[in-house]
Amino acid sequence: LVFAGLIKLGLWQWARAVEKEQRLARIETLTHYQPLSVSQALAMNESGENINDLPVSVNGAFDDVHVFLLDNQVNKRSLGYRVLQLVLTPEGLVLVNLGWIEGSINREQLPSFTPVEGTHRVNGHIRIVDKGIQLAEQNYHDSGWPKRIQQIELVKISQLFGQKLLPFAVYLDKKEVIGFEKNWQPVVMPPEKHRGYAFQWFSLAATWLVLMVSASWVVIRKKNNNKKEGYESGAVE
């Protein structure tokens, strides 16, 4: 069971490496695409197509009052936040990631920054929001604005405003002038690291198998020796 479990973990890490390679190759291909409109992206999503990482052009009015700060975002060993603002488009509200800002050592003190105001057309990339590990439920009604959040929850943000958000977030293109430091990477852990972990799991599986075979051999030899000694003592009597 232990051997099978270690092999399974190794295969899982190997599959993750392949998945990351495929995504990176897809992102490289998408850099040559013209940005989609929001309506085109929605139509593709409704038809079941994969819209993650697709380039998109957003034209709308930025809400400079209701700003979200995504917590625990590290940049060059400094802890900070990603600034998220709602943009009202003809297709509905969409959450836009404007970039990273540095935080304070004092966790009670939120950073000072100037939100984006007015109507703008910006280019970015679609990000389907993955639900991460959440230690405690977020309460969106217990503080003012800007509001610190631990992860992006489009459904709860929709409920907060009584208006459904578009089913994805938009990360601004690094060439955009507006916003803050755009240091995000679509793939945080590279495929090589996943393969390294896979090698470790496979190595542990091989080591465990060798140990178990060796231990079994010792036990079998001991049993055989005991039987042999029993036979010899019986023959002498």
Describe the structure.
It is built from 4 helices and 7 strands; from the N terminus they run αβαβββββαβα. A 5-stranded mixed β-barrel has the order 2-3-4-7-5. The longest helix has 46 residues, at 191-236. The chain is an alpha/beta fold. It has helices spanning 2-30, 38-46, 154-161, 191-236; strands spanning 36-37, 55-75, 78-89, 92-102, 119-127, 147-149, 165-172. It is elongated, with a radius of gyration of 27 Å. Helix 2 links the parallel strand 1 (36-37) and strand 2. Helix 1 (2-30) runs antiparallel to helix 4 (191-236).
Q: Name the strands of the widest sheet in spatial order.
A: 2-3-4-7-5
- Strand tally is 7
Give the H and E element order. HEHEEEEEHEH
Strand content: 25-35%
Shape: elongated
Largest sheet: 5 strands, mixed, barrel
Cα gyration radius (Å): 27 Å
Helix count equals 4
Mean of residue pLDDT values: 85
Low-confidence stretches: none
User: How far apart lie the N and C ends?
Assistant: 45 Å
| Main structural class | alpha/beta
Task: Report the helical percentage.
Answer: 25-40%
Could you give a quick summary of the protein structure above?
With 237 residues, the chain is an alpha/beta fold. The protein is built from 4 helices and 7 strands, in the order H-E-H-E-E-E-E-E-H-E-H.
